[in-house]
Specification:
The chain is 54% helix and 14% strand. Strands 1, 2, 4, 5, 6, 7, 8 and 18 form an eight-stranded antiparallel β-sheet that branches. The protein has a five-stranded parallel β-sheet with strand order 11-15-16-3-17, sandwiched between helices. It has helices spanning 32-42, 52-55, 107-118, 137-142, 165-168, 171-181, 187-220, 228-250, 256-259, 264-320, 355-408, 413-495, 523-540, 564-575; strands spanning 2-10, 12-17, 21-26, 60-68, 74-80, 86-93, 96-97, 103-106, 124-127, 131-134, 145-146, 502-504, 510-512, 515-516, 551-555, 580-586, 598-602, 610-611. The chain has a domain at 2-181 and 496-611: 3-Layer(aba) Sandwich (Rossmann fold), CATH 3.40.50.300. By secondary structure, it is an alpha+beta fold. The protein has 14 helices and 18 strands.
Length: 612
């Protein structure tokens, strides 16, 4: 990928054409940083810190960037200033914009357009607790840009302003950016992980459903051991009842004359109440399931509240512990101070200032959810209690009608036989319903257990596939890291000959002679290590097939404490690169730069943005 030209239109603007080596020198406030920001803005990044002429006075209309991709095509991308969520893209054919090819793209579409044309993977990256972010081109820009605002120890530049502050602070995202540039293809692995998450969610639902079924079975069969033998026993008993019902049914005709003794009203009432009882019993089963589900939900919420409460308690305990000496080196411990680097004052890990507030807010949300769940559970229990009262009242009413029928009938032996048989039939029906419900629940239980066994097998196979894929990715990453470390050490020794090692920690932060970049006290050394980190990764593209866009942008990278001799060596390293770079610097250091690579010199009288 190569940037051929950048043109800014409006009352103020500029028009620059580029080669592989592009050095812009200038005095302070003449437009060096504005140039790098406009370049990255044209490629999909956002900035809160454009100069007033752009952000407030609106003297610049749009930035037009002409880009050649590795597929041989050239396009122009036009993005309105100072902020726009859309980009107009058109293909350049024979030096002219093909108007028929013009399309208007959202920033996400524009990102995918750049990635696909450059042959870079379109995927997402995971961070935090099951969170994902689309791998926009903006993330790649963080790995090829050295700015003045981001602390050197963070290495990758913070791009995107306040809207991207949270994502910029995520160490897992910074790690994923480097891994993607090194050539890792995560898209398949993320698909598998997302599939695994869906399977795990389904597993939780099945387990919750099984718990409810077992709870109801325990109510129906409190002293039964539910196994294959008892299942056969239920089936046998159900068949016996159904056979007995059939025999009674076969003899029912001879009892029909006794039915005539019932009044029409009694008969209708009997049918109505029996139907009502059936509906109420069905509702009772449904409410029992809902109450069991709500109880499971409450228990899950309680566990989450317990976990987050323990985190806050642990924090308070640690901060209150009177530790006066370090447990490792026995040195006197200094009081915890607020860090200016957005670090935890205790463990020095990088933090987000909103973590504590977010945690409290999440805890409050869980507590409110628990209250709502408890209220709903109470409502369901009350509704079930009312429903059971209706069942009891209906059964009492049914018994009263039966007594009326019994008293209205003759006391002959036939009448007595009829009542005995009818009562027996009702008992059979009641037991049949209970056994049918029990057998249905047992079938459901067995089905859920089968599903859970199947899910466990799928999880195992998927986990093994993920591990295999991770191993394959690690091999590729380790091979890339090995080359990268050799390049980095070579460059580092040229600038700091006394250096012996150049390595990375688990999060791909640079380590110099066993010191993490965070722990290096020299500001100039930190800056040099950051530049070497970015440039050596840039050079790796010449040796291996990696996902580097093919250019770097260095905005006045020389630190005030970095002496001219060492900075000149860094410049020599940069001049050796075959791919494109953009470098800004102070006009006062002009003698350090190769004159033939200087694109433009900016002064108070010749600023970057001039009247068009």
């Amino acid at each position: 990928m190569k940037i051929n030209r950048v043109k800014v239109t409006g009352k103020l603007g500029f028009d620059l054409t580029f080669s592989n080596r592009n050095i812009i020198l200038g005095e302070n406030g003449t437009g060096k940083s504005t140039f790098t920001k406009l370049l990255l803005y044209s490629l999909g990044a956002d900035f809160d810190t454009f100069i007033p002429e752009i952000s407030k006075e609106k003297k610049c209309d749009a930035v037009n960037t002409y880009i050649s991709f590795s597929n041989g095509k050239e396009y122009v991308a036009i993005r309105k200033l100072p902020s726009s969520d859309i980009v107009t893209v058109g293909e350049i054919i024979s030096g002219e914009i093909n108007k028929d090819s013009l399309t208007i793209q959202s920033l996400s579409e524009y990102s995918e357009f750049i990635l696909s044309n450059e042959g870079l993977p379109i995927t997402s990256i995971s961070y935090g607790d099951e969170k994902n972010a689309s791998m926009r081109f903006y993330f790649y820009l963080r790995g090829l840009y050295v700015d003045q605002e981001t602390p050197a120890y963070k290495v990758l530049s913070d791009i995107g302003g306040a809207a991207k502050e949270f994502l910029n602070s995520q160490s897992q995202i910074r790690k994923a950016i480097i891994q993607m540039i090194l050539g890792a293809q995560f898209s398949e692995m993320y698909k598998l992980r997302n599939k695994l998450q869906e399977i795990q969610k389904n597993e939780q639902l099945k387990k919750s459903e099984l718990s409810s079924v077992l709870s109801i079975l325990n109510t129906l069969l409190p002293e039964e051991t539910i196994n294959k033998k008892s299942l056969e026993k239920f089936k046998t008993r159900l068949k016996e009842i159904q056979d007995s019902k059939k025999k009674l049914g076969d003899n029912y005709a001879k009892f029909s004359k006794y039915e005539s003794n019932f009044t029409i009203e009694q008969s209708n009432n009997l049918k109505r109440i029996e139907k009502n009882i059936s509906i109420l019993l069905s509702k009772d089963r449904e409410l029992t399931l809902q109450i069991a589900d709500m109880n499971n939900a409450k228990n899950n919420i309680k566990e989450e509240i317990k976990e987050i409460s323990e985190l806050f308690i642990a924090k308070d305990l640690i901060l209150q512990m009177p530790i006066e000496r370090c447990p490792v080196c026995l040195s006197n411990m200094h009081p915890l101070k607020k860090s200016e680097k957005n670090e935890c004052p205790y463990c020095h890990s990088e933090t987000n200032n909103d973590n504590y507030e977010d945690g409290l807010a999440f805890k409050r949300m869980l507590e409110e959810a628990l209250i709502e769940a408890s209220e709903l559970e109470s409502k369901l229990k009350k509704e079930r209690q009312n429903n059971q009262e209706k069942i009891d009242n209906s059964q009492k009413e049914l018994l009263g009608i039966k007594k009326e029928i019994q008293s209205s009938m003759n006391s002959s032996q036939a009448d007595k036989d009829y009542l005995i048989l009818k009562n027996q039939l009702e008992l059979y029906i009641k037991e049949e319903n209970k056994l049918s419900t029990t057998l249905d629940l047992l079938k459901k239980r067995n089905s859920l257990k089968f599903d859970l066994e199947k899910i466990a097998k799928e999880k195992k196979e998927l986990s093994e596939e993920i591990v295999s894929l991770e191993t394959e990715i690690d091999k590729k990453l380790n091979a890339g890291k090995k080359n990268w470390k050799l390049i980095g050490l070579e460059y580092l020794k040229r600038v700091f000959p006394q250096s012996t090692t150049f390595d990375f920690d688990d999060m791909y932060n640079p380590i110099l002679d066993d010191f993490n970049i965070r722990d290096i006290s020299s500001a100039s050394l930190k800056v040099a290590v950051r530049i070497i980190y970015i440039v050596s990764l840039f050079h790796l593209k010449e040796q291996r097939k990696i996902n580097h866009p093919g250019f770097v942008v260095l905005d006045s990278p020389r630190d005030k404490d970095l002496d001219s001799g060492r900075y000149k060596k860094i410049l020599d390293i940069l001049y050796e690169q075959k791919n494109q770079f953009f470098l800004t610097g102070s006009l006062h250091d002009e003698k350090l730069y190769d004159k033939k690579n200087i694109l433009i010199k900016l002064t108070e009288d010749s600023r970057l943005l001039s009247e068009n």
